[in-house]
Design brief:
two-stranded antiparallel ribbon, mainly alpha, globular, Glycosyltransferase
């Protein structure tokens, strides 16, 4: 390297760090200013507070009045321990996983978290129940979809069907919960969920929202479902490799797919979450078509509070979740 090039590179690096820091500060400032009076957040300004954007906003912040947030989430919980997708609903949903995960950091919310975890572990999708599997066994083998119905995860709404993303979120919540708060069947539920995620992986790596193959045609993987599944499998992948190398777990294949796809990502939401996912596996994100700094805080907010929060998290190297693994573990993680 020419001696004159060094100052220029250092100057560019310094400028990039400053831009990143400024964007994160702008995102955090806008996020805090958009909090509703009830302590929660809506997806867009002027709308009713909802559990999902509130949880992501809470995740993105490291300081502030969390008591308001805890109060909103506690007040939003239904009598059966679950959380509804929006106010006024009387049935719980997949956001129960997010609420439990966020409230785990509040000692005063222990009973709320325990009730939520109990609800999660009792929510079995009907599409994979014993009676349903019995009737399916009497029918000719289906050529429409390809999946193992003995594995059970979670759905977007209770007692419906297993889907990749809600299964991933519930699995992460059970993995990270305090052992004393977990129901007796939590370990079994998570084992089934992990098996389901491997079963639903697309043949070329990665995941889409549902089935890996329909009508004999391989499904195309999508960035966000792949990221959530990979984050849910952190820890499970290494355990499977140590247990039996012949099992050929799908994490490495899916990580390779995500690294290849990363270069083509144009969505701010996908770019932020994909970056966090790769960093969770101690993989340096490759050069991409877009950069996190390509959007302003206002542009991100227009895409939704969850996108603004994800960007705050992706720009924060010291974030607590998803964690950033040291680069020295890169060889082991892959």
């Amino acid at each position: 390297m020419h001696a004159l090039e060094m100052p220029n590179q250092l100057e560019r690096a310094s400028h990039s760090i400053q831009r990143t820091s400024q964007l994160r500060n702008d995102c955090l400032s806008l996020l805090k200013s958009s909090q509703n009076a009830d302590g929660g957040w809506s997806f867009h300004n002027g709308e009713q507070s909802r559990v999902e954007p509130t949880c992501w906003a809470a995740r993105a912040q490291e300081s502030g009045d969390f008591a308001q947030i805890w109060h909103f989430l506690q007040f939003s919980q239904l009598a059966d321990g679950s959380w509804p997708a929006s106010g006024g609903m009387t049935t719980g949903s997949w956001v129960t996983s997010l609420a439990c995960s966020v409230l785990q950091s509040d000692p005063k919310s222990e009973t709320h978290v325990a009730a939520g975890l109990k609800w999660l572990c009792e929510d079995f999708p009907r599409d994979s129940g014993p009676l349903r599997r019995f009737f399916e066994s009497l029918r000719p083998k289906s050529k429409i979809v390809s999946q193992n119905t003995t594995y059970r995860g979670w759905g977007w709404t209770p007692r419906t069907a297993s889907w990749v993303e809600p299964t991933a979120f519930a699995s992460m919540t059970l993995r990270d919960a305090a052992p004393q708060q977990l129901p007796a069947n939590a370990s079994q539920r998570r084992e089934l969920a992990v098996a389901l995620l491997y079963d639903r992986m697309c043949p070329g790596g990665g995941w889409n929202c549902g089935n890996p193959r329909v009508y004999g045609v391989d499904g195309d993987a999508l960035v966000l479902p792949t990221c959530w599944a990979l984050l849910a499998l952190v820890g499970s992948e290494r355990a499977a490799q140590e247990k039996d190398a012949s099992e050929k777990p799908g994490g490495p294949l899916s990580l390779a797919w995500l690294q290849k796809e990363f270069a083509k990502i144009e969505s701010a939401a996908s770019l932020a979450v994909a970056r966090m996912t790769l960093e969770n596996y101690a993989i340096e994100p490759p050069p991409a078509k877009r950069d996190l700094q390509d959007w302003t805080a206002q542009e991100l907010a227009e895409q939704g509070t969850h996108v603004l929060a994800w960007m705050c998290m992706a720009l924060n190297p010291s974030r607590r979740w998803p964690a950033v693994l040291p680069r020295s573990t890169k060889g082991d993680a892959q």
